[in-house]
């Protein structure tokens, strides 16, 4: 174990919002440490390799560092490189591949932060862990098979295979289109009667035309009910449909790590939206703050990088005011 270190602020999560909080702390003259259980901007790193953001590059900027791209909208690779360069520019104090196990206040009102590698103390803690680490499970037989994934990265793996894509929001539509273009036989299983309302406007006509032409099969008002090694069962309005299958890409969505938030002592009502002050981002525990999409609970379409960058300023201002 390292010697114990004390900081004004410990930030959990080295995503764009955690980094924005660190930059605000740095510019305010506060000591800080970012602790991240994976790679820098770990969630973005795990996005599909060819993903294009809905937002323009300007809306993804942090710390006043310009995000330059020749494209109207940046892609995943450009974003990962941009945030790496930002971390380098500000020489951010970041411990990567270090999971936080516990946070609690000691008798003196100071936060004790225990990780897999060290113990730290801090006057304030910011949780900026996002929501990408815990997939929403289908809870059906066969979901634990190796051919099933809740994280889609590169379409080449699925070339010439029978692929089922569960879901019809952006991630599901992207997976269906990209794997189809690598020669996969793609069947989309969609619980509702249409594509998701948030599908990117420039992608929607593409998937609609592929479905119309029969190049991608879409089973609406349907659910995957069982997965086996060589086939799957799908509940459709006409009854159970069994089709050959090599891979299942389950784009069913994600949620924050609620068990971790509870362990930290943050109040979670039945809605599973964490309790915090919307003006200061402080939770029910004094000095413990939330920042970024983790604040939205199950409503993961509510907060994004572009509309939660401001959390960093709000938090550091409140810390300085106290």
TrEMBL record:
<dbReference type="InterPro" id="IPR036188">
    <property type="entry name" value="FAD/NAD-bd_sf"/>
</dbReference>
<protein>
    <submittedName>
        <fullName>Pyridine nucleotide-disulfide oxidoreductase</fullName>
    </submittedName>
</protein>
<dbReference type="GO" id="GO:0050660">
    <property type="term" value="F:flavin adenine dinucleotide binding"/>
</dbReference>
<keyword id="KW-0560">Oxidoreductase</keyword>
<dbReference type="Pfam" id="PF13738">
    <property type="entry name" value="Pyr_redox_3"/>
</dbReference>
<dbReference type="InterPro" id="IPR050982">
    <property type="entry name" value="Auxin_biosynth/cation_transpt"/>
</dbReference>
<dbReference type="GO" id="GO:0004497">
    <property type="term" value="F:monooxygenase activity"/>
</dbReference>
<dbReference type="InterPro" id="IPR023856">
    <property type="entry name" value="Bdr"/>
</dbReference>
